[in-house]
Amino acid sequence: MADDIFLTPEEQDERAKQWLKDNGMALVVGVALGLGAVFGYNQYQARQISNAEQASALYTEASTRFQQSELADISQPLERLKSDFSHTPYAAKAVLLRAKQLSVSDLSAAVPELQWVVDNAKETGLKHTALIRLAKVYLALGDLDKAHSTASGKSSQGFDSHYLEILGDIAVRRDEIDAARQHYQGAIDALAPADRGYSRILTLKMNRLPIDDVLAEAEADTQAEAEVPLQ
């Protein structure tokens, strides 16, 4: 307080003692809570780092086995990742490896694994990768409705071209030629500059589409006009 400057040293000391007596417990509790918060945060950080290191090691084990042989058994590290570290990207990446293994011999078995990634992956890229592969699996299985619902309404920079191509493939299977052409053209337009080379594949798919009746009539008229001799 302002009048403290007029107190003698002894009076100031006595006032300080009284303040500590009145507020000492609150001060101790405040310091303890502050130290506890810092300690708790440090513990949390250490636990997060430890979990990431364990998950990374398990994924490395699964990935190494997969690289040695795509048919290698990765079930042990995979199940540990799914049960203990499902929130990490390493779990989702390992499950994508497992889905790729299963798709070689049993497409249906790959479906729940890909769906697991869709439901659990926190990273946008991994989630979209799983959705795109899941749509392709449904398409290969002949379930066009599920393939369409999986690939529809998904918009994310860098993945639009993939979804549009799948929608084009579905339209071809449904004999919806105009829709297929639009989807393929959209897929070409949505390609990132680094992926422009893939436009040749999409263009090839477009060129293989049957010519619809209206376009066929227009081309026939053009050809007929060209064959009329000039007077």
Mean pLDDT, all residues: 82
The SSE order reads HHHHHHHHHH
Compute the separation of the termini in Å: 114 Å
Strand count, sense and barrel status of the largest sheet are: none
Keywords, please?
single chain, mainly alpha, elongated
Brief digest:
This protein has 231 residues and is an all-alpha fold. The protein contains ten helices and no strands. Helices cover 77% and strands 0% of the residues.
Could you describe the 3D structure shown?
With 231 residues, the protein is mostly helical. The chain has helices spanning 9-68, 75-84, 89-105, 107-120, 124-141, 144-151, 160-173, 177-189, 199-207, 213-227. Among the domains are: 71-143; 155-208. The longest helix is centred in the N-terminal third of the chain and has 60 residues, at 9-68. It is elongated.
What is this structure's SSE topology?
Elements: H1 9-68, H2 75-84, H3 89-105, H4 107-120, H5 124-141, H6 144-151, H7 160-173, H8 177-189, H9 199-207, H10 213-227
Helix pairs in contact: 1-2, 1-3, 2-3, 3-4, 4-5, 5-6, 5-7, 6-7, 7-8, 8-9
